Amino acid sequence: MLKFVKLLVCSIFIFFLVTYASTSMAKENKIVAESDILVPSQVYNLDNTQSVELMTKEPIEVSQQGTNIKEVVRPFYTKCLTVNPNTNVAEVMGKILANDFKSFGSADVKGKEQLIKQVQFFWKLIPDLKWEIQEMLQHENRVIVRSIASGTPKGEFMGLPTDGTKSFKIMTIDIHTVKNGQVVEVYHVEDWATAMRQLKK
Could you give the CA distance from residue 122 to residue 77 in angstroms, rounded to a whole number? Predict the structure, then answer.
């Protein structure tokens, strides 16, 4: 009789143990099935300097890197820095340049209104002014422009009296930063020293 009771108790204990284990496994399987299984959101390259998005629950914002922002910059040369009868300089530059625009030269920094006035002055001083694009390179939201500036000033040009009989032709390099379809800053270098030598000959 005692052996029978012991056997009964052991059977009941094993039954409850198996039942508990089965229930726990079922719950775990349900959790795994209902959870979001995502691959890692980023894969890094060998030097860990860049990453590529593989999966995300939020929409990926499209950057300007895939757009041709060179066309935002081009009219600055063809319509503003090149004298032509079809352009209102203030109006066109007002659209191209952001309100907080900055122009960084070797020795000065100009805002939007200052640069517009300078270009308007150049139109009067150099009626045949041309700023011809030779090369444009785009990297992310920056555009690098190599161009040739030429013209025949008539009047005082950077402290030098000119009478419209001599011309200059120089190389220029500009680095523009574009945000939201407008130029927000430019770093520029012009070979004005060569222009002065040409005008003094």
Answer: 13
Q: What are phi and psi of 142, to 5 degrees?
A: -120, 145
pLDDT, tens only, 65-90:
557 999 999 999 999 999 999 999 99
> 4: helix, coil or strand?
helix
Q: How far apart are CA 77 and CA 86, in angstroms?
A: 14
Q: Read off the DSSP letter of residue 101.
A: E
Question: Is the pLDDT reported for residue 165 higher than 80?
Answer: yes
Which among 122, 171, 167, 169 is positioned nearest to 145, based on CA atoms?
A: 171
Confidence class for position 93, pLDDT limits 50, 70, 90: very high
For residue 93, give the nearest of 103, 104, 107 by alpha carbon.
103
Residue 158 tokens, joined: 């950077």
Residue (of 172, 185, 106, 113) closest to 142 by Cα position: 185
**3-state SS record for 116-183:** HHHHHHHHHHCCCCEEEEEEEEEECCEEEEEEEEEECCEEEECCEEEECCCCEEEEEEEEEEEECCEE
Ramachandran category for residue 81: left, alpha or beta (phi over 0 → left; psi -120 to 50 → alpha): alpha
| Cross-strand pairs, 189 | 173
